[in-house]
Known about the structure:
It is a single chain. This protein is an alpha/beta fold and about 350 residues long. The chain contains 14 helices and twelve strands. It has helices spanning about 15-30, 40-45, 50-60, 65-80, 90-95, 150-155, 170-175, 195, 220-235, 260-265, 275-285, 300-310, 325-330, 340-360; strands at about 1-5, 35, 100-105, 135-140, 160-165, 180-185, 210-215, 235-240, 250-255, 270-275, 290-295, 315. Strands 2-1-3-4-5-6 form a six-stranded parallel sheet. A six-stranded parallel sheet has the order 9-8-7-10-11-12, with helices on both faces. α1 links the parallel β1 (about 1-5) and β2. The longest helix is centred in the C-terminal third of the chain and has 22 residues, at about 340-360.
Amino acid sequence: MKIGVYTIHDPFNYGAVFQTYATQEAIKKLGYDVEIVNYSVEKLAKSKFSLKNFIIKLYAELHPKTRKKLKRCIHFHKNKLQLSAVKDITDFYQNPPVYDIHLVGSDQVWNLEAGLMGNAFFFLDFLKNDQKQISYASSFGTSTIDAKFKPIVKPLFEKFSNIAVREHDGVEIIQSLGVSASQVLDPTFLLSAQEWEKLNLGKPLLNFDYVFYYGFDKSTDTEEMLSAIKARLGMPVIAVSVGHFFPYKVDQFRKDPGPIEFLNLLKYSKFVCTSSYHGACFSIHFRKSFFCNIHKTRNSRFEALLKNFNLQSRQLKDTSSIRKFTDAELYIDYATLEPTIQAKTNESFQWLRNAIETAK
Length: 360
């Protein structure tokens, strides 16, 4: 039996790459063939020409370090992801892919902030009603959706045999349409730390103690968080960003890490600060003490993640309080959280197993 996975895999940011890889590997662990449906998300979006974006893209193509990062990401895609043949968006509607099960997987595939962009691709509107469809850890990215979309997506959700989303808000959105849904963990939790380490992370890239930061926002809260944690721990801050530039002063801003180098830098750090959802996920995977700030518009996924593991205190309302924390407040005692982490992980893996079995 072959399962096709529809997800946002092609932007070269770490979260998109890792959740795709984890979904693929989890399905393989269950004993099924799997293929990542290969297309470009950029082709779905119809954006106007932007001189700023053009310059940033040109910079990325010409700068040696960002070129190195791009090459590393492309290498990971080609060697670690089982991709289908490349298809144009029109091909899906004229000749839908043939799989035993079509699985929409993770990331903000149902984010409607930009509308449906001319189609409902990630709702699998091009498939017939008799084709088997499930969703694992899909996300709306927001706590509510515009009422105008509800009559459009309701019949599409009704075609799914099983739906699981990442956030409780997502469950409520779908249930408000009269469709049942469950909440599960992000796909990256379907692989253990030991399984992530099988990607050959190697020895530490840096031979000193450091704080690792990963994010992409430009808030004063992030700037204060980095300043406070550096003062509190007396360690240099090593930063990685989704973008090609970094707005704050840190000891090192690394432009060249690919997926493997990213995991290496996080795994061997002494502390993590992040404004990224997957930055928080991997802090938990590698049992790192961490802080994250509050996202102004897309905080529901952070709230759901941290609530699962009783880690709500790691999201700071007042970043300056870091300077006053005791060691007990600063560091996470993962020994007390292990039973919860294992139980939640097992529940999510079992949900995926059952969803596939019942859809067969």
